[in-house]
Amino acid sequence: MRETTLCFPMRERSDDGTEVLLIEKRRGLGEGWYNGPGGKLEAGETPRECAVRETREEVGLEVEPGALEKAGELTFLLDGEAHTFCHVYRTRSFTGEPTTSDEAYPEWVAVDDVPYEQMWDDDHLWLPGVLEGKTVAGEFRFEGGKPLDKAEFVGHDLEWGVSFAAGQK
Ligand SMILES: Nc1ncnc2c1[nH]c(=O)n2[C@H]1C[C@H](O)[C@@H](COP(=O)(O)OP(=O)(O)OP(=O)(O)O)O1
């Protein structure tokens, strides 16, 4: 099973609204869809280190590992088998300005205007709560064979208010 991360940088707008930094993926799994910066863990890397690296590589923001707030653990199943385990983080503490990379076009989006119709089919089930500050553990079932982003989303289970202990991955 692949171990991956997603990171959602957030900021307050001057008019009191909140924005989240999304990427439009330019290649790989979920190409053409919006998501947070993220990707697969490299050898010897912790999930936090992966989230920091992927955020730097994909959008050019610098985040301290300790500034990442663990918000979710998501398991994606394909045809009954675990395919991807994803650690989800949010943060309001980062430096730099988002820049386009080979992998991603970054875009600040109002949390009320997240384009769920241009995202993975499961995202509208868990991302709104994560952007509200909740924690979640979820299992999402896909069927139809590889690749995962061409398979059909068929079911899910969610548990909110999960405790991710301080210092945990
Ligand atoms: N179903 C669903 N909803 C939301 N997000 C995701 C999924 N499935 C997923 O795989 N993901 C996330 C998890 C990861 O952050 C990305 C895909 O990562 P990865 O396959 O590593 O992306 P690539 O761009 O191909 O590879 P890297 O080189 O960036 O590691 O989507």
What does this protein structure show overall?
This protein has 169 residues and is mainly β. The protein has one domain: Alpha-Beta Complex (Nucleoside Triphosphate Pyrophosphohydrolase). It has helices at 47-59, 123-131, and strands at residues 2-12, 18-25, 34-35, 38-40, 69-78, 81-91, 104-110, 136-143, 152-160. The model has no long low-confidence stretch (mean pLDDT 96). The chain binds the ligand Nc1ncnc2c1[nH]c(=O)n2[C@H]1C[C@H](O)[C@@H](COP(=O)(O)OP(=O)(O)OP(=O)(O)O)O1. The ligand Nc1ncnc2c1[nH]c(=O)n2[C@H]1C[C@H](O)[C@@H](COP(=O)(O)OP(=O)(O)OP(=O)(O)O)O1 binds at residues 4-6, 28-30, 35, 38-40, 76, 84, 86, 103, 120, 122-123, 140, 148. Residues 1-132 form the Nudix hydrolase domain. It holds the Pfam family NUDIX. Its EC number is 3.6.1.56. One of its GO terms (cellular component) is cytoplasm.
Approximate helicity band: 10-25%
Bound molecules: the ligand Nc1ncnc2c1[nH]c(=O)n2[C@H]1C[C@H](O)[C@@H](COP(=O)(O)OP(=O)(O)OP(=O)(O)O)O1
User: Roughly what is the average pLDDT, rounded to an integer?
Assistant: 96
Our estimate of the beta-strand percent is: 35-45%
Domains, number: 1
CA distance, first residue to last residue: 17 Å
Q: Biggest β-sheet: count, sense, barrel?
A: 9 strands, mixed
Q: Which regions have little confidence, pLDDT < 50, spanning 5+ residues?
A: none
CATH architecture: Alpha-Beta Complex
Radius of gyration: 15 Å
CATH-assigned homologous superfamily: Nucleoside Triphosphate Pyrophosphohydrolase
Assembly state (oligomeric): single chain
Keywords: Cytoplasm, Hydrolase, Magnesium, Metal-binding, RNA-binding
Catalytic activity: N(6)-methyl-ATP + H2O = N(6)-methyl-AMP + diphosphate + H(+); 8-oxo-dGTP + H2O = 8-oxo-dGMP + diphosphate + H(+); O(6)-methyl-dGTP + H2O = O(6)-methyl-dGMP + diphosphate + H(+); 2-oxo-ATP + H2O = 2-oxo-AMP + diphosphate + H(+)
Main location: cytoplasm
InterPro entries: 8ODP, Nudix_hydrolase, NUDIX_hydrolase-like_dom_sf, NUDIX_hydrolase_CS, NUDIX_hydrolase_dom
